[in-house]
């Protein structure tokens, strides 16, 4: 599909949508429920700056009549819940019935769902995109949210397993490496690629698949988001919304079994500590173990997530969340499967069996990940709210691994040995205030804040040594661990501290009920220093000083109440991962600039959400090798790349059908010729076309109530595996999944089958043509969930 057709579709899309109007005043009715779909009784519901208000009945329902059509702020509050307010448009006549769900944090409305369906796929607000709870319809950015129901229906236990359900996103391999809008999002290079409740500090290392034990929903904010979060992937960032303590007493147990010896168990307990319900707790404990379709690979995870919320008053709360994740693995890194290079330079992706691996049975990884997050929120008055967050993360890794050296010859390969111990940390302080006011006819939602992040490592002990050559089909692993007396070919032994200080201000301006303008400006300053700890360190020191302004401008126009058209200009900058003077540093900062236009709609009484977006991202100052006779290690910053394309996605619930579907088109290529590649070369792991679909049908028939049938499909077109070899192209692939579920009372039984056709396909490469990420063959999971109370 050519980009010009996407532009044509963009202009046609809002015209084809409509709304209706009735004479007289407006009428609004709805129902307020909690996270367990139980009615919230006695909640106050009012339209600010009017005398219209009511309280919810025993069934959680409310009704307001005699409303003059226009734009209002609806406010909802209840004992134990922080007051929440949100813009709402009232039309003449009867407006759609609102099914409002209070979030588990009890501090704000997590979602506004115009639907009577209990098991929701659709989410209409994002907790992170603007930090103001703005409806996605009025947010000038492409944002997609995976609800807890989608995670359950997919039996997705890691970010890798849910990535393909996002439009235009995929996992490149079995580690923490993903593709969004043509860019690779990878933790070492993008410190804030993964956010937790909108705060920097990734809990997991790049060798791991992020776990979802304590995750309520997953948000994808497409494009550079530096105005709020500082550095991140140019293609987008992921925000995890974690599960919070509840005021209602609940407990559940989940058990899962699957292919390759997979087993998983978790418990989730929450409720009040005392009868006053001022102190709330939540405890999540999980354990899983699995082997693999590859030889020798094994993995165990232990996950603990206790949390406490103290409701100091109805306007003030304090939340403490602790996370601990321990992983023990044989071959922690997923180095992928072999690819054979033919004599004519083409590649055979089918030559070697799935089970083979370049790693040795002695390779291992032991990881201790821990985090603590303290969040203070205070609603000073109806207009002003203060939030202060402290987050600390520590990652300790002890790891050995084997990697390929050179090409495969005569079905054998030379290998290198890596031995790595590292101790990493991140200390983040975030404080921001949200203020709502008016200046004449203009409404303002102002967010002003500051960040201080101190991160780096106290130990980074890495050694690389040559290892043995093995026969691929009949490997002999004896002697594969080099003797300690063998000198290292490459070695790091250093510590590093980087200090980031940032400040920002954002104003969401409402011009009547149809126009909204988003203006943001941020300034960041980085100051980092790397210090060698011994003579073994190759770089012998590195320093980083960088600063810059990051603007963001967005415009939203709502021609009718359920359709919006938007445009946005976004920027971000990332400090270079290397500024060593021995390599030619310091280097200019990597910069991303995005231009995006789009349209959003809420259809069928707002039960279905649709988004169309078209974008271009310019990425500059990428480092590439530029050796000279005097300096073989010299690097240089080049003009960079350009990624452009479009996305269309729909999500929602229509009667007994829940669905997620989307199509993404992307062209990511170099804009100049250098040692990095030729102008027009395709970027690695960036397919031009991606299609995703997942649908679930809940049978309404008597005797079959509680039974659900689901199916899904993912299509990824061919993709270049290595920028420096444009002939290294992974074939396109189509993967089909299916599921059956049955819920009765407190029990829910689910069976998921993945890759039904047992398709052999490669998902992406890392750094060469010898190995690449291989998609999982046919596998099955059976899950049982029991609600204790």
Which tags fit this structure?
single chain, 789 residues, mainly beta, Immunoglobulin-like, Ferric Hydroxamate Uptake Protein, Chain A, domain 1, Maltoporin, Chain A, 3 domains, disordered N terminus, TonB_sidphr_rcpt, ion transport
| Count, helices | 4
Q: What is the CATH C-level name of the largest domain?
A: Mainly Beta
Percentage of residues in strands? over 45%
Q: Please bin the fraction of helical residues.
A: under 10%
Characterize the overall form. globular
CATH second-level architecture of the largest domain = Beta Barrel
The third-level CATH topology of the largest domain is: Maltoporin, Chain A
Unreliable spans: 1-23, 104-118
Give a short account of the largest sheet: 22 strands, antiparallel, barrel
- Average pLDDT: 87
What does this entry look like structurally?
The protein is mainly beta and 789 residues long. The chain folds into three domains: 26-101, Sandwich (Immunoglobulin-like); 136-242, Ferric Hydroxamate Uptake Protein, Chain A, domain 1 (Beta Complex); 250-343 and 354-787, Maltoporin, Chain A (Beta Barrel). 4% of the residues lie in helices and 57% in strands. The protein is built from four helices and 48 strands. It has a 22-stranded antiparallel barrel. The two termini are 51 Å apart. The relative contact order is 0.12. GO terms for molecular function: siderophore uptake transmembrane transporter activity; signaling receptor activity. Keywords: Cell outer membrane, Ion transport, Iron, Iron transport, Membrane, Receptor, Signal, TonB box, Transmembrane, Transmembrane beta strand, Transport. It is found in: Cell outer membrane.
